[in-house]
Write a structure and sequence with these properties.
This protein has 549 residues and is mostly helical. It has helices at residues 2-28, 36-50, 60-84, 103-114, 130-160, 170-195, 223-232, 253-277, 281-306, 318-331, 346-357, 368-388, 401-426, 429-432, 440-455, 470-500, 516-548; strands at residues 206-209, 215-218, 393-394, 397-398. It has a domain at 366-548. A two-stranded antiparallel sheet has the order 1-2. The protein has a two-stranded antiparallel ribbon with strand order 3-4. A hairpin with a 2-residue loop joins strand 3 and strand 4 (397-398). Helix 5 (130-160) packs parallel to helix 7 (223-232), helix 9 (281-306) runs parallel beside helix 17 and helix 11 packs parallel to helix 15 (440-455). The radius of gyration is 22 Å and the shape is globular.
Length: 549
């Protein structure tokens, strides 16, 4: 049944890719859509209110500055809200809020949601008020997700345009991504969750008297408002501590399946959007095909490793659906897990952590996954060009020395941050004390997993590591900020250099980017990059743990 569900998932995803990709192309290119009659007046009102000039496009540096400023404002807003939440009206009752909101935890949480990481060093039902969840977390799920999508669209424009000094207008892309994409889909998705039994209320926690005698308090709240957008916006932070494993957040296999489609639908459609932007649809299809192959390989390895392992999994989902969810969420920037990854076998954990280390390249974040995959493709193109003594090109754009440096910086930024922070944590006795149960290779993997998740703006954890400390709150925040803004900065600068170029004519020596051969080159580049950057650290964690069994 697990493989049947995975096959159905891929069929649904690929069926949605072309129409949704075409819709995204029309939205961000300003072409007519079916929603214009309703949304155009709202869009115009927002432009007038905010003083946005639609006809004024931005250079790469101004676009990046706007993106960074928006992220900073979102972080400050949420930080202040978290610090003053004790005085907010409404539930839950203060006696249930047992985790104190320290300044370092508030800062870490604010950065987490403003970067779509939604790394949670706390339990939502014992830490946050209802209004904090709605006003702070839900709003950031929309806005931060739309901001990431805007950067991905700007990157695609950079490759598509010729002799242009601009990449579009960040504020226009942000508003259109929110109004035309995230908001309507979330309304429909959230109502479907309410239909399936997910709460959407402001009721007090309910007291249930168990057969054994003690009283159990059942959390309530506006759960449905958060749960769908956390997946669609590739955020992942849950209303409850156990996230998608909670029956209020994810009550049935159907809601779980819909959640997985919500995570991957827009990222899977973006290669189609990219193909239409560059007027080479087959080039986008090839990138999507590489994503599918990588997804199937990862799912096969994790599925085989977890066969028969029911530990840490919800009975209503079983092994197959749990593994599918784990692979989908680790591929993207959405840590919406429905099982305990700390209970997974070593090779399954190997797949999950490698997916995050590679940077969301398989049905990844909103926009970020596509440009991460293209960056790895550019590595392969540069290597292929060096092998034949020809200046490398991609879709008619020349990859010179400066472009090569930017590609190299992007490729090395993740291992530099993740490996250094992991080494620092492992070398510190007080920090190692955060390993509550496991030591040795498994404990090492828990630390590596935390920083890989933070850098990938993913947010899931193996849960055997106590991370609500000053050290982890600070260092995971460093990884989250670098993964969000550092990688985006390099991508936008590269897009600006491509945008300023003309398109060189195609010759017999040009590398076609819309063939199976190019797909094989991209796949090989992924394998090579993973081996060179991460094989040693993975050998110290899940690989050696597997060999010890």
């Amino acid at each position: 049944m697990g493989w049947l569900e995975a096959a159905l998932f891929l069929v649904v995803l690929l069926a949605l890719a072309k129409p949704l990709g075409g819709y995204l192309f029309r939205v961000f290119e300003g072409q007519p859509t079916f929603a214009d009659r309703l949304l155009r007046p709202i869009e115009s009102a927002i432009y007038r209110l905010c003083g946005i000039r639609v006809d004024r496009e931005m250079s790469p540096r101004v676009y990046l500055a706007s993106f960074a400023l928006f992220g900073l404002l979102g972080t400050l807003f949420l930080f202040v809200l978290l610090c003053v939440q004790r005085w907010l009206p409404g539930g839950p009752d203060a006696r249930f809020l047992t985790t104190p909101m320290s300044f370092d935890l508030a800062a870490n949480t604010a950065i987490s949601f403003a970067t779509t990481t939604t790394w949670q060093a706390y339990a939502g039902e014992s830490t946050l008020r209802y209004l904090t969840q709605i006003i702070g977390l839900v709003s950031q799920n929309f806005l931060a997700g739309a901001a990431g999508l805007a950067v991905g669209v700007a990157f695609m424009r950079g490759i598509a345009r010729e002799r242009s000094a601009t990449l579009g207008n960040f504020w226009v892309d942000l508003i259109r991504g929110t109004l035309w994409v995230l908001l309507p889909l979330s309304v429909v998705g959230s109502l479907s969750l309410v239909w399936r039994g997910v709460p959407a209320n402001f009721s007090p926690y309910i007291a249930a008297h168990t057969l054994e005698g003690p009283t159990q308090w059942i959390a309530q709240g506006p759960v449905a408002a958060l749960e769908f957008i956390k997946n669609l916006g590739t955020n992942g932070g849950g209303f409850f501590n156990v996230n998608g494993a909670h029956p209020y957040a994810n009550p049935t296999p159907l809601t779980n399946f819909v959640s997985m489609v919500a995570i991957a639908a827009v990222p899977a459609a973006l290669p189609i959007t990219f193909g239409q932007m560059i007027a080479r649809p087959r080039a986008g299809v090839v990138l999507l095909a590489v994503m599918v192959v990588l997804f199937v390989v990862g799912l096969a390895v994790a599925g085989r490793a977890e066969a028969g392992n029911l530990e840490g999994k919800e009975a209503r989902f079983g092994v197959g659906s749990s593994v599918l969810t784990a692979v989908v969420t680790s591929n993207g920037a959405t840590g919406s897990y429905n099982s305990m990854h700390d209970s997974y076998r070593p090779m399954a954990v190997f797949v999950l952590v490698l997916n995050m280390l590679l940077g969301e390249i398989v049905f990844g974040g909103l926009g970020t996954g596509l440009y991460s995959l293209i960056m790895i493709a550019l590595v392969g193109i540069v290597v292929a060009g060096l092998m034949i003594g020809r200046t490398p090109e991609y879709l008619g754009k020349t990859i010179r020395a400066e472009e090569t440096r930017l590609v190299a910086i992007y490729t090395l930024l993740t291992p530099m941050v993740v490996l250094v922070l992991t080494a620092l944590a492992v070398a510190t006795t007080a920090v190692r004390a955060g390993l509550q149960i496991n030591t040795g290779p498994h404990g090492f993997t828990e630390i590596l997993f935390a920083y890989a998740s933070s850098m990938a703006n993913n947010g899931q954890s193996m849960a055997g590591l106590a991370v609500n400390s000053v050290f982890y709150n600070v260092t995971t925040a460093v990884a989250m900020v670098t993964g969000r803004f550092g990688l985006a900065a390099v991508a936008l600068l590269l897009a600006g250099r491509f945008s300023s170029q003309g398109r060189v004519p195609t010759t017999a020596g040009s590398l076609p980017c819309d063939t199976p051969t190019f797909g094989a080159l991209v796949f090989g580049s992924v394998v090579l990059t993973a081996a060179l950057c991460f094989l040693p650290v993975l050998a110290l964690g899940p690989i050696v743990e597997r060999l010890q069994r």
